[in-house]
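Re: export button greyed out
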Amino acid sequence: MVEKTLNDLFLAQLKDIYFAEKKIYRTLPKMAKATKVPELKQAFTAHREETQGHIERLEQVFEMIGKRPQTKACEAINGIIAEGEETIEDFGESASIETGLVAAGQAVEHYEMARYGALIAWAKQLGMPKAASLLNETLQEEMKADQLLNQIGASKVDKMAMTKMAA
Amino acid sequence: MVEKTLNDLFLAQLKDIYFAEKKIYRTLPKMAKATKVPELKQAFTAHREETQGHIERLEQVFEMIGKRPQTKACEAINGIIAEGEETIEDFGESASIETGLVAAGQAVEHYEMARYGALIAWAKQLGMPKAASLLNETLQEEMKADQLLNQIGASKVDKMAMTKMAA
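Workaround output, generated via the alternate export path:
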């Protein structure tokens, strides 16, 4: 068999996260629609714009390694998003939907953080500092998005769910 | 319809992570078997023992809320683990398998960190500091496992993959 290298793994993972970002881009409007909290709606909408930028950065990295941008079905993000959709279905009319949406968003961010973390380490190993730096810009935005969800969760949403429970 | 509360969301998420931990417990031996790096084998084996503890802590939390421990199929962890198995299949005989295994392990840890983070916040909101503290013990172990994989990746595995590529 042909020996697979770190280059192959990098490319496989790049296709995986390219699929994931595109799926996230299509899903964020559903999440924005499902929330009644303006801050959360705004966070999902703004993150969708950022996600467009993440897709474009990935296309730049494909170009850097001389490959055509290509997706590879990412079972992980499909599963994470399926769970988010299940939450919207099960809790969509209830007070705790907002809390569920924050958690769903954070699960997505954490998945991306893990994948970008690996890609950045490999890009450095493979002597592609420019690719590493581009991917790191995205990682920083994913981390900020996660922190923002944390803040919205702690300051608005969880308290709201509790108030409604007590009412 | 019956109004769903934060209690319902907490219970749903508890069943989800209970399923995930059990699945991880069954999967870790496959990951340990797939690596030839002793440090990584040891990390997966030790984390399996910790995972048994995580399962038991979840059972304690079920007891605290007066519910029978029950799983709920977690599409997210199924997807994340399916991707890890695909990596073993595609890269199992190659130099970069070790790098792929580290990344697969980190994707699992990040998923758990997101889920435990949410559960801890909700347990506090719901006035269950003891449950929050138990879940936080697990979160700390997941974070340590992620950091250990980071170290093994940076110090051993990625360099090894590069050496083999150059050879």
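Chain A has one domain: 6-166. The button fix ships in the next patch.
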